[in-house]
Amino acid sequence: MGKRSRERLSGMSMATTAGAEASCPWPPEADPGPSKLITLRVKDSEGVRITRTMRRTDALRDLIGFYRAMALPGDMAFVDAGGVFMHYGTVVAGDKTPADYGMEDSDEVAFFPDRVSTVPITLTVKDGKGRRVTRTMHRFNVLNILFGLHYEMLPPGAPKEGFFVYHGREVHCVMTPDCCKMEDGDEITFVPISKPSAFVTLTMKRTGTNDVDDHGSSSAVTRTMRRTDALQGLVDFYFDMVPTDEEHGAEWDVVYCGKQIDGEKTPADYEMEDGDQLRLVPASKRSAFVTITLAGVERATHTFTIRRTDKLQGLVDLWSRMAPRRYQHGFILLFDGRRVSGSPPPGTPDNLELEDGDTIDVVAVQVG
């Protein structure tokens, strides 16, 4: 083939190709659109950051739940911790999706905790015997943590079946202080439901003595009696078994749980349990003074030493002057769940059977 023929063929090929391109242009590239996946980051006010990749159509509750599981301690991860999640000034709802808020890849969701709800809280469980256990915990921890400590505190033989009461309603171990609207310093009462035996075994001994004296004789006496029998029978039995140099009727006081008892009353009156101890205290050593602590809100406490025969009304008046605004609508005094102020005015420490170290709670009267 000559040179001219090759040029003619080459020109025809180029013309044919140009014509083909003109008549059959390449299709334009399709817009792929946004990815089905998106990576978001949650950041809280303490600088904790977590990152999660999810579908644009997934509910944001998955992201919120993942943050709580990674950033919040213990049981707080399984409850609705106080606070809000926001995206560029808009509150984020858990049932919405990233697409609903027009979120882009690498966007940040900010978490603002409710500072009031996340502050730890101190609670106390008490029972009718004056036993108390106190624990500081998160507002979103289940109450079972506190209730477990109460059961561990109980002596052998004490009833462990019952229910816990807060402000007149029963609370369960799976509840949290937050859902019960509890405040710092609140108390929960344990109410046993087990029926006690008709009999109870009690031990009596003198204060400051061992179970066996210098002569090898026992200085402690244990006796089983009916719960409805007068305790004076146990006292008389003790002195028959363990003679003393003193006239026991005038020289000794019988004390149970730090409080002097009345011999005419019964174990049932004092809710005594198997294994409980009564102690003989020389009456001459009983101090004429008693130290009492008043406990108000926000852990405010003041300790006073007064005579056992002084009226408590003086402490009431003093407390009123110390915090006039906080108690502008008045307050009441509670001791072991009993109201000791109001009308008539409170009596004396002896009348109320107060002992050294006892605490009286000051509760503000709420209006409205």
List the main descriptive attributes of the protein structure presented here.
elongated; 30% strand; five-stranded mixed beta sheet; alpha+beta; 368 residues; Ubiquitin-like_domsf; Ubiquitin-like (UB roll)
Overall description:
The chain is of the alpha+beta class and 368 residues long. The protein folds into 4 domains: 37-117, Ubiquitin-like (UB roll); 121-192, Phosphatidylinositol 3-kinase Catalytic Subunit, Chain A, domain 1 (Ubiquitin-like (UB roll), Roll), CATH 3.10.20; 199-285, Phosphatidylinositol 3-kinase Catalytic Subunit, Chain A, domain 1 (Ubiquitin-like (UB roll), Roll); 289-364, Ubiquitin-like (UB roll). The protein is built from 7 helices and 20 strands. The chain has helices at residues 3-23, 61-71, 115-118, 144-153, 232-241, 248-251, 313-322; strands at 37-44, 49-55, 83-87, 90-91, 108-113, 121-126, 132-137, 162-166, 169-171, 187-192, 199-206, 220-226, 252-256, 259-260, 277-282, 289-295, 301-307, 331-335, 338-339, 359-364. It has a 5-stranded mixed sheet. The longest helix is centred in the first third of the chain and has 21 residues, at 3-23. The chain is elongated and about 95 Å long. The chain starts with a helix and ends with a strand. 17% of the residues are buried. The model is unreliable at 13-18, 75-79 and 211-216 (pLDDT under 50).
